[in-house]
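Students often ask why inverse folding is considered easier than folding. One informal answer: many sequences map to the same fold, so there is more than one right answer. In these notes we will look at a single instance of the problem. The structure comes first.
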C-alpha cells in the first residue's frame, strides 16, 4: 500500500523520509567487573530481600561480618552459593568496608547497606556514571528524582549542616554528605586510603575524593526504611565523629602521605 509513497511525496513537493536507522543495541554489553561490598551486623532477616536483587552482572558479592550473633552468614551462603564471606573482628562499618575493599577483585566497587534501605537495581546508574568518566559516584537523597523515608528531621538538619560545612572547607557542590550508597573504580582505593572504623567512613571517602581532585558525580537515590531490626547509627555520637573527621582532614591536609607514598612501601600502613 505504501509502494507509491515516494511518487506521491514528489508530486506535492515534499521531501521523502530518510532511510530507517537501526538503533538496536548489541544483545550483550561487556561491563567491567563489579564487586558489591555489603557490611553486615545481625541482618539475617534483611538479606532475603537484598541478595536476590543484586544484579546478575555482578562479578562478586562480598559480605563482611564477624560480629553478628544471628545466622547472617549462613543465610547469605544459602541465598547465594557464590557469595564471598569476609570475617572482620573489628567493630564498625568503616572497619568492615576496609576489609571488603581489600578482598574485592573487581574493577569497580559498589558499597551497599544490608538493611534494605538501598535499592540494588539502582547500581547500574552508578556504574553507568563511572563508565561515562566519573572516578567516584555517590548517591544523593536530596536531588531531583531522589528521596528518603528513613531520616528524621533532626538527622536531616544535621546532614545538611555537615554538607554545607564540607562545601565551605573543600569546595564542591555535594547535596548529601552522609549517605553510604557509593561506587568507585577500585584503582582509587589507595588514594582514598580509608583509615577509620565508624560511620564517618562515608564522609572520609567524600572528603578525600575532593582533596585528591577526583571526578565526583552525584546520582539520585531513594532511601527506604530499614526492613527489620534496629539501626546501628547513633545520630549525635556519629555526627560528632563525622564533624571531627571533616576538621581533622582539613588540619592535617598537608601532613598525610600521598597515594604514591602508600604504593612505595607504605601499603601495610594504608591497609591497617
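Output (designed amino acids):
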Amino acid at each position: 500500500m505504501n509502494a507509491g509513497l515516494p511518487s506521491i511525496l514528489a508530486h506535492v513537493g515534499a521531501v521523502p523520509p530518510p532511510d530507517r536507522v537501526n538503533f538496536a543495541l548489541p544483545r550483550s554489553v561487556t561491563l567491567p567487573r563489579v564487586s558489591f561490598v555489603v557490611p553486615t551486623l545481625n541482618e539475617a532477616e534483611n538479606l532475603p530481600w537484598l541478595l536476590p536483587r543484586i544484579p546478575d552482572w555482578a562479578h562478586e558479592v562480598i559480605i563482611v561480618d564477624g560480629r553478628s550473633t544471628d545466622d547472617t552468614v549462613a543465610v547469605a551462603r544459602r541465598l547465594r552459593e557464590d557469595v564471598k564471606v569476609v570475617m572482620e573482628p573489628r567493630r564498625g562499618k568503616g572497619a568492615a568496608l576496609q576489609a571488603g575493599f581489600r578482598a574485592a577483585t573487581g574493577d569497580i566497587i559498589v558499597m551497599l547497606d544490608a538493611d534494605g534501605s538501598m535499592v540494588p537495581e539502582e547500581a547500574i546508574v552508578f556504574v553507568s556514571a563511572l563508565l561515562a568518566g566519573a572516578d567516584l559516584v555517590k548517591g544523593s537523597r536530596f536531588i531531583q528524582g531522589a528521596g528518603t523515608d528513613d531520616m528524621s528531621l533532626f538527622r536531616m538538619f544535621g546532614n545538611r549542616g555537615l554538607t554545607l560545612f564540607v562545601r565551605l572547607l573543600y569546595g564542591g557542590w555535594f547535596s548529601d554528605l552522609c549517605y553510604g550508597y557509593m561506587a568507585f573504580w577500585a584503582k582509587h582505593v589507595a588514594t582514598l586510603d580509608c583509615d577509620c572504623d565508624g560511620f564517618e567512613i562515608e564522609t572520609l571517602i567524600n572528603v578525600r575524593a575532593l582533596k585528591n581532585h577526583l571526578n565526583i558525580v552525584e546520582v539520585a537515590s531513594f532511601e527506604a526504611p530499614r526492613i527489620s531490626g534496629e539501626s546501628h547509627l547513633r545520630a549525635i555520637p556519629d555526627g560528632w565523629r563525622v564533624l571531627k573527621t571533616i576538621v581533622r582532614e582539613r588540619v592535617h591536609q598537608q601532613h598525610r602521605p600521598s597515594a604514591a607514598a602508600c604504593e612505595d612501601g607504605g601499603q601495610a600502613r594504608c591497609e591497617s
